[in-house]
Amino acid sequence: MVHEQSEPRDNSNYALGRLRELLQASAFGQDGRLPTERQLAETLNVGRRAVRRALEVLEGEGLIWRRQGAGTFVGERPGRWSEHLGELVAGTDFMEIMEVRLRIEPQLAQLAAMRAKPAEIERMRELTTRILKSDDADARELWDGALHRQIAQSAGNQLFLSIFDVVNQVRQDPAWQAIRERARSAGNTMIVSRDQHQEIIEAIEAHDPVRAGEAMRQHLLMLQERLIRATSFADAEMPPEDEPTLSEAS
Predict the structure, then answer these.
(1) What's the domain count of the chain?
(2) Could you tell me the CA-to-CA distances from 165 to 104, 205, 230 in Å, in that order?
(3) At what angle do helices 189-205 and 177-184 cross, to 10 degrees?
(4) Could you tell me which of 100, 84, 224 has the C-alpha nearest to residue 167?
(5) pLDDT in tens, 170-179
(6) Distances (CA, A) of 68 to 51, 64, 73, 167, 227
(7) Under 8 Å between Cβ of 30 and 149
(8) 54 and 170 share a domain?
(9) 159 and 123 in one domain?
(10) How far apart are CA 179 and CA 230, in angstroms?
(11) Has this prediction a pTM greater than 0.70?
(12) H or E element in which residue 74 lies
């Protein structure tokens, strides 16, 4: 391992170039968290000072952001309102979350239909496959959230994406996991959700904003109804599989 004292100064340029390549290749996982400086130094075979300097440049360019005690993340720093996430979770119920999602995600799907690149659409399909292959609630929530975020990111609107991220973080709070899983496991919800995800992606690939927005709206309406039922029938069995949802009946 190279010691910082003997580190050539141009190693910083090498580290910066390699980190740019890794960022462009989306090599830092679903949560966008970068490894520690020590881990990056070992991976790139440079000193930690070179890594630190490179990260400072990337942060200045808005390609990454850092939070004390939490780590370094890909993308621009979220708005400061996301630091009050705990208060948002405590003061928000699932109906409020769904109301917001129904207002913004169909619009994001429409924009994605206009702007999504082929590689982004392929990524959407990969995420859909991962949802289907998941065998536990945590994994399903992870990949489902990643799919919806990919659609939001493909919309190409940073302000919209920032709003989506705040809503998504509230939605992913562990306090909601049990009720979401109960809603997702009810009847044929997983099959319907799979088909709806495919319809959304096909509409985006076809560059059909109207169809994409409506497909997303129907998907969220189905989830909203299942959440209502999951809370209304918390101590009873959910309705049978063949009972249509409101969105399917309309």
Answers:
(1) 2
(2) 12, 23, 25
(3) 90
(4) 100
(5) 776 666 666 6
(6) 17, 14, 11, 23, 36
(7) no
(8) no
(9) yes
(10) 6
(11) no
(12) strand 71-74
What is the rounded distance in angstroms from the CA atom of residue 4 to the CA atom of residue 50?
8
Note the pLDDT tens digit of each residue in 133-142.
887 776 777 7
| Tokens 């994994």 belong to residue | 139
CATH number at residue 56: 1.10.10.10
Question: Which tokens sit at 172?
Answer: 């992913």
Q: Do 230 and 177 sit in the same domain of this protein?
A: yes
Q: Are 114 and 213 in contact (CB under 8 A)?
A: no
Distance CA 138, CA 177 (A): 8
Q: How many residues does the chain have?
A: 250
Nearest to 184 by CA among 214, 144, 218, 216: 144
Predicted local confidence at residue 219, as pLDDT: 95
What are the backbone dihedrals phi and psi of residue 71, each rounded to the nearest 5 degrees, phi first? 125, -165
Q: E-assigned strands of the chain?
A: 64-67, 71-74
Is the same domain home to 60 and 114?
Answer: no
Looking at this protein, which amino acid is placed at residue 39? Q
Q: Which residues contact 109 (CB under 8 A, 6 or more apart)?
A: 151, 155, 200, 203, 204, 209, 212, 213, 215, 216
Cβ neighbourhood burial of 144 (10 Å; 0-12, 13-18, 19+): buried
- Assess whether 113 and 70 both reside in one domain: no
Residue 19, beta-bridge partner list: none
Find out whether 112 and 154 touch, Cβ atoms under 8 Å: yes
CB distance 106 to 188 below 8 Å: no
The closest alpha carbon to 151, from 220, 185, 195, 197, belongs to 197
